[in-house]
Structure formats: C-alpha cells, structure tokens
Amino acid sequence: xxxxxxxxxxxxxxxxxxxxxxxxxxxxxxxxxxxxxxxxxxxxxxxxxxxxxxxxxxxxxxxxxxxxxxxxxxxxxxxxxxxxxxxxxxxxxxxxxxxxxxxxxxxxxxxxxxxxxxxxxxxxxxxxxxxxxxxxxxxxxxxxxxxxxxxxxxxxxxxxxxxxxxxxxxxxxxxxxxxxxxxxxxxxxxxxxxxxxxxxxxxxxxxxxxxxxxxxxxxxxxxxxxxxxxxxxxxxxxxxxxxxxxxxxxxxxxxxxxxxxxxxxxxxxxxxxxxxxxxxxxxxxxxxxxxxxxxxxxxxxxxxxxxxxxxxxxxxxxxxxxxxxxxxxxxxxxxxxxxxxxxxxxxxxxxxxxxxxxxxxxxxxxxxxxxxxxxxxxxxxxxx
Length: 384
Ligand SMILES: Cc1ncc(COP(=O)(O)O)c(C=O)c1O
Fold this sequence. Notes:
Number of strands: 15
Bound molecules: pyridoxal-5'-phosphate
CATH topology of the largest domain: Aspartate Aminotransferase, domain 2
Largest sheet: 7 strands, mixed
Strand content: 5-15%
Shape: globular
CATH superfamily of the largest domain: Type I PLP-dependent aspartate aminotransferase-like (Major domain)
CATH class of the largest domain: Alpha Beta
Distance between the termini: 41 Å
Number of helices: 13
Number of domains: 2
Structural class: alpha/beta
C-alpha cells in the first residue's frame, strides 16, 4: 500500500462538522477521516502560491480529466455539452426538482433513502410520493409493481434514484436499472440518478451508471456526480451534473442561471481535476481498506453480537445495521449509542419509512477507531 489509511489525523483542530462534539466518536455524516490524495494538496497549494483569487475560468484541462475519469472508471463517455457544473449535489437535486416539474407535481423516491431527497421535494412545493424498498431477509429489493403504480400517477413527473443507495449500501444491477428506465419512459417520468457514491464500489461489485444504458434511457435522465465522496472534498462544494438531453439541460441550466447561480468553486475545480487525473491508485487502495472495514464489522457482529445484523455493503462507505432485535425504540437506541457507547451515529428513522430500528455507520475512518466503536457498541448493548 502506498497510502497509509491507518494514520490518525486529529480533526478537532479544524471546524469539522463531523467532529463538532469532542465527547463522541463520530460515525455519522458522510465524510472520511482520511487525507485526500497528495495531488489535491499539490494542485491547491500551487494555485494558492499565486495568492490572487479573481474570477477564474474552468481549468483548461478540466473537462478532459472528467471525461477520462468516467470513461476509465465507469465505462461511459460523457460529452462536453452534457456537463453542468454545480456547487453540490443536494443543490442540484433542488434545481432538478424545480426546473423539471411544476408546483404540485409529484416526485417519487424509495425510502429508506438519503434524507435531503424528501427535503428537495417538499422545499419546492412539490408532492412527495414514496415507493419503499422491500426488505427481503437481510437485503432490499425494489417492488416494481408498486413503483409502476407510483409512476402511473397523473402528476408523477420525476423519480430520484440513489445508486449506490445511501443508506442501505446497495448497488443496483443493470436489469433493475433497465426496468426502472422502462417504467419511467412508459409513464413519462424523468429519472434523476444521484451517483455521488458511484466511484465507491467495493471489490466484488460493479456499478452500472444510468447513463451507460444509453439511448432513450440516457435522454430521459439527469446524472448527478461529484468528486466529493470519492476523494473527501465535500467542503469544496463541486459537482458535475450530466444531462444529455438538450431540452432537459436547457431547462435545468436556465433555471439555475435565473437564480444567479454559477456553480462550483475555484478550489473545487482544481481539486476535482487533480483527483480525477492522479487519484486512481489512491482510490483503489481506499476501496481495499473500506472493504476490510466492512468485513471487520461483519465478523465482529457475528462473533460478539449475533442479534445485530449488518447488511452487505456493496457501495459507499455507509454501513446499514439492523438493531431491531434489541427491541428498543428509536430514541432509546440512539440514546444507548450516544450516552453509553459515546458514539455519534445516524439513526435509521432519519431516512424515512423502513428505517426504524436501524443505524447507519460511516466506516470511512481508521481501523483503530472502528475497532473502538465496535467495542463500545458491544459494551453498551451487553451492559443494558
Ligand atoms: C446520496 C447523496 N447525495 C448527495 C450528497 C451530498 O452532496 P453535496 O455535498 O454535493 O451536496 C450525499 C452526502 O452524503 C449523499 O449521500
């Protein structure tokens, strides 16, 4: 390994949101306790040496770096005119909802899902429609009959897909995505595919980017990507939205312009280009490290707390864990983990229907910290 992901990096010295409470070991918000690839620091410090921050254009080789990344890592070729840079995926979801639907229209999501999805819909005066994922043994499946019933509603206009799916860690198969795409086309529903975790595919799994389905599927989609989860750049607020269909793209871009938004930031673009150009080996090693962390969670729980079950983590670094067998209410479960285990975690109910009894753990931390967290969970559960 060329990179040392075991190195402990004190984060309390910065204004890290994740580490805001010094009493608790944080395994909640989705950022990593790892330094970004060295190329990011080199590119940012080289630019900072100039110490003059006027209005900049996109770095000259920004798009070629983006294009080459998606071609080599995800297997599809993005075209330059598809790209709309925005300052974050959550903002882009709000823009998509507001630019591609009308007030009162319905937007479909699949809970349990990333909690800003419903917010993007409700903040915009649109109607939230859910098609909950079906829990089957220890994983989730799409209830396609229900999904079709929701898409068939007269005012259903948009579907927000999360692939890999936060918080359950599932990577959808090509067949599942094609079925979603077919239903969406049949009922005139645009697919917004949030693929922010799309580079974080654990060994043994494969991402099918929605855009790689091509043809009508591609024309009926908005693809949200960003380097922020992959390379730990969330503070730099930069994302790349791909919209192949010129009509949808025009609606989205005009709406954004109408709000006076420009999208992205100087350092975000510099970091994104550097990471996409030089970060592949770092990412490969990160994925091996994250897989070992996920394996540790599985083996620890099986040996020490077999009543608590972790879903198989296929993509992202967000581990979905079923504490339901403890029979605690959600508040009591969160309190146990906070007050007894001294951990800051994401309660499952935050992610909507189906989340009760679950906890989401962020595994993108040093192994020693994860071991501490697991040991504390065991002590808290056994000591109840
Ligand atoms: C599915 C998903 N989309 C979007 C985001 C946040 O994106 P951004 O920070 O670019 O707004 C996250 C962060 O955890 C996420 O999990």
